[in-house]
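Entry under discussion copied across for reference:
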Amino acid sequence: MGQNNSNNRLKNLLEILIISTRLGLTSFGGPTAHLGYFHEEYVRRRKWMDEKSYADLVALAQFLPGPASSQVGIGIGVMRAGVLGGIISFIGFTLPSVIALIIFALLLSSFDVGDAGWIHGLKIVAVAVVAQAILGMANKLTPDLKRKAIALFALVGTLIWQTAFTQVGVILIAAFLGFLLFKKHEKSAEANSQFPITKRVSVICLSLFFALLFLLPVIKGITGSYWIAMFDSFYRSGSLVFGGGHVVLPLLEQEFVPTGWITEEAFLAGYGATQAVPGPLFTFAAYLGAVLKGWQGGLIATAAVFLPAFLLILGALPFWDSLRNTPKIKGAIMGVNAAVVGILISAFYTPIWTSSILAPVDFALAAILFSMLAYWKLPPWIVVVTGALVGVILPLI
């Protein structure tokens, strides 16, 4: 009996690895598209979970900070084969784009980033991509005047005081405002679901999440270690991202560009290139880490930026029912989600717009690329290749 259980577990883990890797190689289009791919594969085709359980898991991932699609993938792996299944699912879905972006970063080190036309084209791709993200998020997350006001507060605050601490403060204030303004938010029908995580494991994960968040800066100050400083920056960025992968952009930019660790040109070129690969947008961290410290830095950065998402999804699963049925908690999250729209608009202006749109022809190209994404619904990799090619051609005209 024990041998059969062991064989079944190994079979499940191998199956998770194969399927998640295939999804990691083919899932283009951002987190919303990823959730569609997951639903088709795991719910409709393989029936690993029912519709209600999947909807519950998606709702939890949207509620927590971090990359929603990656957290759903981790959760599916956990429900199929325990914590190890979650780890295997994460590795399969994430590793293909991590490898591609590390290779891109290493190749990029042999070029003059500032002068290459295709690099400028990738920066303009970033303009189009973030503009589309802002419009979609604003329609969904700021539908009323109260949330528009919170977004405006976040925009003004992060533009005037451009530090990572400002963004943290804005998120906390927005949560408090949302708690006050939407505490009478209509309570939905209570729901209950079952997740295979004990509360003991959950408490350990949540304790580790907060311990790392507060202790890493202290350890960095004591040791002066470059690696710990880098891990701390990526971990903190991964811990504070509400609203989707695009929001990691301003957090990482504030961590690495003002400090001189990476140039704006290299930063935005990597962000543009990230749109051309499948998988989660958080793998942008792999590119940054590789620019800073080679392939080892890419792997460390990836582990650091995704670790909060992993700890939070495992930590929150047993408590999800009580969280989701608390209107005041929902109100706080509504405030935070409105704030991230303002934070993203701030990042859209600087550094994205100010360092990418330098002439009328740049604006024209950005408009074309935006239309390709938003109206013609072309795959992101086509938009990225077009931006890079036109970036090469324009200086020759």
User: Anything to note?
Assistant: DSSP finds 16 helices and no strands in the chain. The radius of gyration is 21 Å. The longest helix spans residues 68-108. The CA atoms of residues 144 and 338 lie 10 Å apart.
